[in-house]
Specification:
Elements lengths: L9 E10 L8 E9 L3 E5 L6 H8 L5 E8 L2 E2 L5 H6 L2 E4 L11 H8 L7 H11 L1 H4 L11 H13 L5 E5 L7 H16 L3 E5 L3 H7 L2 E6 L2 E7 H6 L1 H8 L8
Helix pairs in contact: 3-6
This protein binds adenosine-5'-triphosphate (ATP) and magnesium ion.
The site of magnesium ion has 4 residues, from helix 1.
């Protein structure tokens, strides 16, 4: 799906990134990625391929050993998460992404700790996308369903008005109907102009909605292309989509 709001400016770029957790063990071993202004980028690949690690590397949560990661042309290697938030990057991790003992409202306020004055305006934006949350602001996040928690997590990330949103498996653990809903919300966020990099285990659905996708395998980008091209690429179908890629859209 191409969108009029996409332009050629490179917002995030990873070049030949090597990174890992334990000394001498690289999980990312030559990863490349480009996200242009307004793009929705999908990242798929087998379990353990390093998808979550790739998002963590962008968000300064592990050491990049070689290669470079840039944001609007400037290297962000070595910058910690709080600095990245100030530069407009938001991250929704795969798990533990809400504060369960806090209300929805308090979760949203936590998202805005660097700019509390903007609360009313940002609340209006996020409840425009996630209208059901606006009616339940006092409810404890721990009492919500998985899908609702995912909405709180995305809303919290959007409170700082990010220009780049990193999403790790927004549809994980949701029923098929809820999964569809999660993908629609991600599209809505992206259409509002937020450059979005989304990791997904629901590969077919992810490729259907993204502008471009990357298949990550063993810490490298094995394939890159438009969502449509990847969905129809026999090698990608055979190795990563199974029969899913041949299903009717
Ligand atoms: N904190 C950590 N310390 C050491 N190794 C880790 C850590 N987190 C992840 N790994 C290892 O890094 C590799 C890649 O993990 P990662 O979570 O990035 O994969 P993934 O592609 O997101 O997988 P999944 O589809 O299961 O979410 C795995 O071998 C994993 O065991
Ligand atoms: Mg993961």
């Amino acid at each position: 799906m191409t969108d009029a709001s996409v332009d050629d400016r490179v917002v995030v770029e990873m070049k030949d990134v090597h990174a890992g957790y334990l000394p001498g063990v690289n999980i990312l071993s030559g990863a490349n990625l480009v996200a242009r202004q307004g793009e929705l980028i999908g990242i798929i690949g087998p379990n353990g391929a390093g998808k979550s690690t790739l998002l963590k590397a962008i968000f300064g949560l592990l050491n990049v050993r070689s290669g470079d990661i840039t944001l609007n042309g400037e290297s962000i290697v070595g910058l910690k998460a709080d600095k990245l938030v100030k530069r407009g990057v938001a991250f929704v991790p795969q798990t533990n992404n809400v504060f369960p003992s806090l209300s929805i409202e308090e979760n949203l306020q936590m998202g805005l700790y660097q700019n509390p004055k903007a609360y009313a305006e940002r609340l209006e934006f996020v409840t425009g996308i996630f209208s059901e949350l606006g009616k339940r602001l006092k409810q404890r996040a721990g009492s919500l369903s998985g899908g609702e928690r995912q909405m709180v997590a995305m809303s919290r990330a959007l409170m700082m008005e990010p220009s780049v949103l990193l999403l790790d498996e927004p549809s994980a653990g949701l029923s098929p109907v809820r999964q569809d809903d999660a993908f629609i919300r991600v599209s809505d966020i992206n259409k509002a102009g937020v450059t979005t990099i989304m990791v997904e285990q629901n590969a077919r659905r992810c490729l259907q909605i993204c502008d471009r996708g990357y298949v990550l395998d063993q810490g490298r980008d094995a394939y890159e292309g438009t969502g449509r091209d990847l969905l129809n690429d026999p090698k990608v179908i055979g190795l990563y989509l199974g029969t899913l890629g041949t299903d009717a859209a």
